[in-house]
Amino acid sequence: MLVSKPPINSNSNAPLLSEALTTYLKLKGEGKDKIFVRAANRNIKYVIELLGNLPIDEYSSKDAAKLRDFLLDRGLLISSVKRIFSSIRSIINLSITEEGIGCINAFSKTYMPESNNVEIRKPIPINDKKLIEVTSSLFGDVSAVFK
Q1: What does the alpha-carbon distance between residue 40 and residue 26 come to, in Å, rounded to a whole number?
Q2: Which of 142, 62, 69, 146 is nearest to 107 (CA)?
Q3: What is the Cα–Cα distance from 63 to 124, expressed in whole angstroms?
Q4: From CA 28, how far away is CA 41, in angstroms rounded?
Q5: pTM of the predicted model, to two decimals?
Q6: Which residues pair with 55 in a beta bridge?
Q7: What's the average pLDDT block by block, 10 residues per block, for the chain (147 residues)?
Q8: Running DSSP on this structure, what letter comes out for residue 16?
Q9: CATH class of domain segment(s) 17-114
Q10: DSSP secondary structure string for all residues of 33-63
């Protein structure tokens, strides 16, 4: 069950995580596809739903570990958790730099366990590739079928 921290009376001048996301999307999201924007929003939503929408300098390494454990408990692969953390780090780092905040990004040095259970994707068989090419040449662009 997700429980947000209650709003706290803070003396922090740092932006809230949601504000950091807005800044990030304004500065880095220009010209990016909708997947970039959707991923950034989803990743920050994980943090806010689990830990609350706090000033970025008030998250702790313990909070980051709690998020890692939550994501792993949901069944995400470690590679997905690393990708999510990379996005969160980037969003917070940009605000730290833009706002001139003297703090450490709590999500920057979170330990990520290595996993030996990584499933290697097999390449598409050559016969399937040929079928796709023939179908595409007969019916035109079929990419919408795979979306």
Answers
A1: 12
A2: 62
A3: 40
A4: 13
A5: 0.73
A6: 16
A7: 50 94 95 94 98 97 97 94 97 96 94 75 83 80 61
A8: B
A9: mainly alpha
A10: -HHHHHHHHHHHHHHHHHH-S-BGGG--HHH
